[in-house]
Amino acid sequence: GGAVYPFYSFSKHDVIGEVRLPVRDMDLHHVIEEWKELNAESTTEFERLGEICFSLKYIPVTSKLVIVILEAKNLKRMDNDGFSDPYVKVQLALNKKKWKRKKTGVKKNTLNPYFNEEFTFDVTLEQIQNVDLIISVWDHDKANKNETIGKVFLGCQASGNALRHWSDMLADP
C-alpha cells in the first residue's frame, strides 16, 4: 500500500491542494507506483474526493521522465446525475514556472476511471533537480468550465511525511 497524503482546498475553483516530494532525491533506478488520497479541507469537515494511482520513472540515460496515469477510484460526484466525467492533467513546473503539460482522455459517467495512459517528458538531469510534478483530476463539464476534483503536487519542496516517504525510496538498488 502506498502512502496517503491529504489535500487542502483554498477556494471553490482553485487548486484543491498539493503534496510535495523532492524529485531531486528520487531513486532513479526504480519505478515508483502508489495511490494517493484526495482530500479537501472545508472550514468544518473533510470531504472525500477519491484517490489516484500513478507510476513515475526517470531514465537518466535518455533524459526521459515517464509518468503513467493508471486509475482513480471513489471520485467525488461533480455532476447532477451522480457521476463525473473525469480526466487527468499532468503538469511539470521548472523553477516554479509552468513548463510542460499533457492530459488524458475523458472517461464518461464514472467515479472509478481506468486510464492506463503513459506520458513521456524530456527532462535533463540538471532540470530534474528543479522540477515539480502536479497531477490533477478534473471533471469535464459540458458547460466548458471544467472543475478540479483533486490534485497531487510532487516537487523539490518537501516536508514531514512526504519527505520521509520519498527518502524511503533512496535505498540502494
Automatic annotation (TrEMBL):
Sorted keywords for this record are:
Repeat
Superkingdom:
Eukaryota
Task: Look up keyword Repeat and say if it applies.
Answer: yes
Q: Name one GO molecular function term.
A: phosphatidylserine binding
Task: Tell me the InterPro entries matching this sequence.
Answer: C2_dom, C2_domain_sf, Synaptotagmin
Cellular component, GO, one term: plasma membrane
- Biological processes, Gene Ontology terms: calcium ion-regulated exocytosis of neurotransmitter; synaptic vesicle endocytosis
Q: Where is the C2 domain?
A: 48-173
Alphabetical list of PANTHER family matching this protein: SYNAPTOTAGMIN, SYNAPTOTAGMIN-8
Identify its protein family.
Belongs to the synaptotagmin family.
Q: Protein name, please? A: Synaptotagmin 1
- Annotated source species: Ranoidea alboguttata (green-striped burrowing frog)
